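Extended Data, panel c. Modelled sequence:
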Amino acid sequence: MNAQNRESAGLEIRPLATVDDAVVASDVLARVWGGDRAAMPPQLLRAMAHAGSYTVGIWREAEMVGASVAFFGAPPERTMHSHITGVLPEHQGRGVGRLLKQHQREWALARDVGTITWTFDPLVRRNAHFNFRVLGVRAVEYLVNHYGAMDDGVNRGDETDRILVAWAIASAPALTPPDDRVAAAVEVPADIETLRRSDPMAASAWRLRVREQLLAHLADGLVIGGFDDARGYLLVRP
């Protein structure tokens, strides 16, 4: 059994079935996002669960270590929008996020959903790697300051640019484009989260640089075709 399978063996994903589950999940997500419990209050989690949306927690023994929430759009739309997923920092990098996404995929397929969408911060390299290289999503749109100002420990003081991606869960994953198709690349910082704490001005400069370069390439008719850990976003002709 490899290291990832050993880490996953002790995990259990189940619905947020009680008020207590919703309270704990709200607290977990607040801890991931630096204290902003108002972003996903327990009452909203309960309402979404009752309405049939995707609301789950992931437990290691008696401790909830992550949670995921998605808006479910019933057929014929056949889509679901994943609003928030978070794993506690001490449990990150252990395959928990991958397990949650696999569970989300199976839940969606059982309800005839063909595509799951979500947004992520284009400066967070590990998320770009996971989305494009592990899951094989495709980029749909670059959204400038999509959520406006957010008062949490992750986003406070920064603009909330996001990339909207679509995961075609019933199809083969999108592959990283070969070098002969890559027309341009946009580099991202190695660790934007640490940089925000140590040098906020440098982090803001990265935000503007990546935004301006990506928007310029998109306006020129290119599309984001994938992500490379060394080069960043890979842009191709459609």
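The CA atoms of residues 85 and 198 lie 26 Å apart. This feature is highlighted in the accompanying rendering.
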